[in-house]
Amino acid sequence: MRTRLTEHVKDRLGTFALTWPSIAQCAVGAALAWIVAVRLLGHPRPFFAPISVLICVGVGLGQRLRRVAELIVGVSLGVGVGDLLVAWIGSGPWQIALVVALAMAIAVLLDGGALFVAQAGSSAVLVATLVPVEGAGGLDRMADALTGGVIGIAAVALMPASPFTIAGKHLSDVLDALSTALERAAEAIEKRDVDLAADALEAARGTQALVEELEKALETSKEITTISPMHWHRRARLARYEAAVLPVDLAMRNVRVLCRRTLASLGEASPPPAALAEAMREVSEAALLLQLELGAGREPTLARQALLAVAARERPEHLGFSAHVIIAQLRSVVVDLLEATGMEHEAATATLTPLDEGAA
């Protein structure tokens, strides 16, 4: 129980370490947006300005530039429809229903994203309930939304989270999961333990969410290096992560198949030999090397060398059907990880000794 609590606390602290820059950006940006809208634009209650900052910046991973565009257009649509109808039909329950329905319907017909549609509806609600504010028209509220969006992007640019921390942390999570799955599968083969093989398969099947989070993290990191002048000169380092994401995703998919076949193989008359488990463990260690070298911003030469050694290893003889499948998947994982180190696909494939010569 205590171990689980400790792991949960560490996980929460790790999440906070990633999100605190966004929290700071939201807090500072919201205050600045209010000040600018009140003192420079002269708006008495510019609630759209700080709200726009929170929506644009957020604390999650995503495409902030797109969110800004959807926010501005969504607010403008909602405010425009709301102002037009409220001025004509007044404010009340059925008027709110009509305003929201029309604003969201128009947003959907314009092929807007989820944020666009939701923002159009929520803006219409605000217009129909909180307004009219004295002297505040639709153009004022649109200006507030634009102000908040611009300040939100400025906060991301001038108070940026580290794009390498974001991308590196999520890539590290995937590579760690990949390494763990291979290690468990190797141990299952060595101990002829079906339960261990089942655990390895279950762990591997649960990694797709990590891969999806990695893809979002990379988009966020690329966006930060685009927006923030502080990181323009370091885009080459992020390119290493970008080149690694797809191959690592493919490697993880192949590991899932490998784990499934490992479980099946332990029920065969000729289970996989211990030598195959050793090769799996070497690939597992190479994945950890890749994790460390990319995290340190270095060329992953050690990981590449470890993978090349596995690629040149001879295949054990007298294998059953499942063992042959495991070897085929392991070879695919090696190629995928070599590509993640920066090798081209053809060059990575060429490092494998042909199977018809009895090598792995």
TrEMBL record:
Q: What is its main location?
A: membrane
Q: Where is this chain's protein located in or outside the cell?
A: Membrane
UniProt keyword Zinc, yes or no: no
Q: Where is the Integral membrane bound transporter domain?
A: 33-154
List keywords of the entry alphabetically. Answer: Membrane, Transmembrane, Transmembrane helix
Q: Does the keyword Transport apply?
A: no
Bilayer disposition of the protein: Multi-pass membrane protein
Q: What parts of the sequence cross the membrane?
A: 12-37, 43-61, 68-90, 96-118
Its recorded name reads Integral membrane bound transporter domain-containing protein
Q: Which organism is it from?
A: Nonomuraea coxensis DSM 45129
